[in-house]
Amino acid sequence: MKYNPNDIINAAQKLSRRTILVGALQLGVVTALGARMRFLQIKEAEKFRLLAEENRINMRLLPPARGIMFDRDGRPVAANVPNYRILLVREETEDVEQVLTQLQKLIAINPNDLEKARRELSRRSAFVPVTVTENLTWSDFARVAANAPALPGLLTDVGLSRIYPQKENLAHVVGYVGPVSEHYLSRTKDPDPLLQIRRFQVGKTGVEAQMEHDLRGSAGHQRIEVNAVGRVMRELQRTEGQPGATVKLTIDSKIQNFALARMDGLSASAVVIDCATGDLLAVASSPSFDPNLFVRGISSKNYNALRDDIFGPLRAKAVQGTYAPASTFKTITALAALEDGVLSPDDTVFCPGHFEISNNRFHCWKRQGHGALNVEDSIAQSCDVFFYSISQKVGIDKISAMARRFGLGEYHDLPLSAISRGVAPTRAWKQKSFDKAWLLGDTVNASIGQGYVLASPLQLAIMAARLGTGRAVQPRLLKSIDDKAMSLGTGAPLDVDPAHLKVVQRAMFAVTNTKKGTAYSKRIVSPDLQMAGKTGTAQVRRITAEERLTGVISNEDLPWEKRDHALFVNYAPHDNPKVAVAVVVEHGGSGSSTAAPIARDITLFALTGQMPELSHYPSGVKAQIKEEQEELAPKLFDWSTLDRKGQVQT
Amino acid sequence: MSYLEYNLAAVPVGFRKILALNWPILILLTAISGVGFIMLYSVAGGQIDRWAQPQMLRFFLGMTGLFVVAMVPIWFWRNMSFPAYCLAILLLIAVEFVGTTGMGAQRWIDLGFIRLQPSEVMKIALVLVLAAYYDWLPREHISRPFWVLLPALLILIPVFLVLRQPDLGTSLLLIMGGGAIMFLAGVHWAYFATIIGSGIGLVVAIFQTRATGWQLLKDYQYSRIDTFLNPDRDPLGAGYHITQAKIAFGSGGWTGRGLMQGTQSRLNFLPEKHTDFIFTTLSEEFGFIGSISLLGLYTLVVLACIASALSNKDRFSALLTLGIGITFFLFFALNIAMVMGLAPVVGVPLPLVSYGGSAMLILLLGFGLMQSAHVHRPRPKFK
């Protein structure tokens, strides 16, 4: 190799030059990095600090305990019970299958639940607790808890779930809760974040639905720190929620239960109202259903059975069902005529068994006719012709106006689902609804509560209460919310001549307490409990002229759905009304034979608070009543079981 | 320049060599490694034995190696250059067959006590062989095409092997590091202009061949490029790492959140928080002051290398020192740029700080070579 000092010097100089160049380049890059650091850490620091906090902190809702419901005497009707659950955390066990096998040795687990749990376990992150089984009994739960050290990864947990301890008793009144539906969420404007909880339980029907706002309570919040995969690291802050309000109903569940038991096997409904306060003591629709079935999601088999039952157990007939009030409406027609001055208490009408108007013949239920009757006897014996006749003088509009004053055709604002308004028809109403003129025959029909007139059992009970007291008794279902008493429904005196009202009251007393009265055999004999009432038999089919010639087919010979509805309204005691009762038995036959005895027994139970004593009944029926009561007793709710459950929930 | 031309009499011998070491660089390396221990302690949530302790062990092992290498005269290492390069090539071929796969790449050979990454060895070996080549090459040949093609092949053979692993980050480091040495050695400007020009052409080609049967990169590399170009496009998917790294980085502010107070790293939002992304934890916990200080330490190392090279009259030593410095620079600059969202996520560790198999060991041995060059630099014959 040639030794050329100049070459070496040149190369060294070149190296130095290029080294400095590369060094400068490196410094340039470092400066750029430093500038980027400054930008991210100084200028953008706030933004990134915020993003880091968002990463780190999650808000979690703490669902409040739903408000519990009691009847007027503090018996629980809707409560929360601990829901004992077993959870499994995959990462805390080495062998999931082995733990599940061990668990199955301790308690029985539904294979479906187990399959679902396995799927969840394999899908969720290893640290997420997955529900293996829930709604365990305390003893099963305790057994698992005691063996927990041998079952790695198993967690025991207690949640709250809704229970209706009285089961069928108040299904139509209290209603039930269920998971909030997607459909509801999509149209609600309710901003409550609780609704966003998956399968959050909200009221679906009845008081549960109508009082949802008060019962739900407000959510608590928990600020938790989570890591990148969502595992909770620690709780940063906790704000407890507000539990839902405690609601006390006016219902007396013993009366409610008695009414249901008394109507067992019938498609019927009964309403009992306190005449002094307007408190609804019982709003019973039979048959009923167990709302607990709906809480955890009802099976389609059970649901179809309820839906397809011709007795309609899902319908709240007491407020939702509307029926022709039939003869019970005669009280209203009579009052309208008396108030209008077209009728005086002593005026009589001759009943030949039928009434002719514009070439139509209207029949009295008694073919041979009642002869000459005044208004009091006409109500007591339920003569139809009398009311056909006087209705022509009063006119439909005045009759309907009177009906509305007594609560028919009016909407009663109660926290219940599907409350029917019924119909108190007027000329204008028919014109508007059917685009047809009102006919004289319509008035004739309406005068005896048939035709267009429709009323719910609730309205009939209100009517009876108002007839008995002369006050505009307002029904109420809520006694108190969180110990705040609700206003009473005593009502102002009705603007009706007391003398005229007295006539109707005397007539209603006569119905049950005079030999010719339609419900004489269903009277109460104890002087201080005597009731005044009115029977009604609502025709659900048209009786043709031919049939009248050959003889009207008796109810027993008709298919069930063509038989008459049986109605009875009453108040008692007649001289100082405490309770008013309305009973409607769908396709039950005549009011006096089917509805009146039920109403009588419910009235006695409501007044005495126990299975009615035989001494209240006329001597002729005592043996039969005794037999009935023996049959009825086992159907009553066992209140001793409720006390135990009541303790659990508090 | 052969070893006969060294002024042997002036080179320190025995323990005096230790005094002649480039102590500022040793102190800087120790300081940087110290930062690494603290960060590894922090990301382990206060556990010392998880990452910090093995890392310290590796540091002491590496430092011992550094001293041993530094004591050996530089002319010995110069003569070892080509054998070392050949060994590294063999290791790269071997990793094809017996390598352990990690993160979708074949990178390691498990030697039992250490997981050796042949690509790490190659980084130093390439510097060695190029420095020796340009020391040996007569000056007038430097820019002749044949003599340019030869070192280009020396670079491209390992690049090809590393790309097959596939490890894009190391390939880029090799090309840039090797190219820098060729540039420093005095290769004509025109070559670099041509290379850079064709580099741009290659980038265009890479994107043009995408989704065709003969695309040049793997799908995951394309997706990394996409993600790099627009990390916000998919913040929960492929862009998640970069987004989270930037959040951690930015949330540090001036002074940071304090040791072990970084929520992003402690709550595992950061990916690879103890290896490639460890700088984000430092930035989150010690803020701008912490991160700019570490960047300063790194820069001082590079400057110290340049100073040492400029004062070294031996061509091999100077090129070697510069090559080590540039490799070191490329390491940390690429890593920091990556975690700040300035460069694609290519998997380059932060030198001396990231927890990692052989990277720290090899790097310290590289600095051992640099120290040897410093200790055994030619002294003027007459004072």
The count of strands of chain A amounts to 21
Question: Low-confidence parts of chain A, pLDDT < 50 over ≥5 residues?
Answer: 644-650
What would the average pLDDT of chain A be, to the nearest integer?
88
Strand percentage of chain A, roughly? Answer: 15-25%
Give the overall shape of chain A, derived from the CA principal axes: elongated
Overall tally of structural domains of chain B: 1
Radius of gyration of chain A: 37 Å
Walkthrough of the structure:
The complex is a heterodimer of chains A (650) and B (383). With 650 residues, chain A is α+β, with helices and mostly antiparallel strands. Chain A has a domain at 326-407 and 421-455: DD-peptidase/beta-lactamase superfamily (Beta-lactamase). In chain A, 40% of the residues lie in helices and 18% in strands. Chain A contains 25 helices and 21 strands. In chain A, the strands form six sheets. In chain A, strands 2, 3, 4, 5, 10, 17 and 18 form a seven-stranded mixed β-sheet that branches. In chain A, strands 12-11-21-20-19 form a five-stranded antiparallel β-sheet, sandwiched between helices. A three-stranded antiparallel β-sheet of chain A has the order 1-8-9. In chain A, a hairpin with a 2-residue loop joins strand 17 and strand 18 (484-485). The longest helix of chain A is centred in the N-terminal third of the chain and has 39 residues, at 5-43. The termini of chain A are far apart. In chain A, 44% of the residues are buried. Chain B is mainly α and 383 residues long. Chain B has one domain (3-188, 235-375). Chain B is built from 14 helices and three strands. Chain B has helices at residues 16-20, 23-43, 52-71, 74-98, 118-136, 145-163, 168-185, 189-208, 219-229, 240-251, 263-266, 278-310, 315-339, 359-375; strands at residues 100-102, 105-110, 115-116. Chain B has a three-stranded antiparallel β-sheet with strand order 1-2-3. In chain B, helix 5 (118-136) runs antiparallel to helix 6 (145-163). The longest helix of chain B has 33 residues, at 278-310. The radius of gyration of chain B is 21 Å and the shape is globular. Chain B starts with 15 loop residues before the first helix and ends in an 8-residue tail after the last helix. In chain B, 51% of the residues are buried. The mean pLDDT of chain B is 85. The chains are: A alpha+beta (650), B mainly alpha (383). Chains A and B meet through helix 1 and helix 2 of A and helix 7, helix 10, helix 11, helix 12 and helix 13 of B.
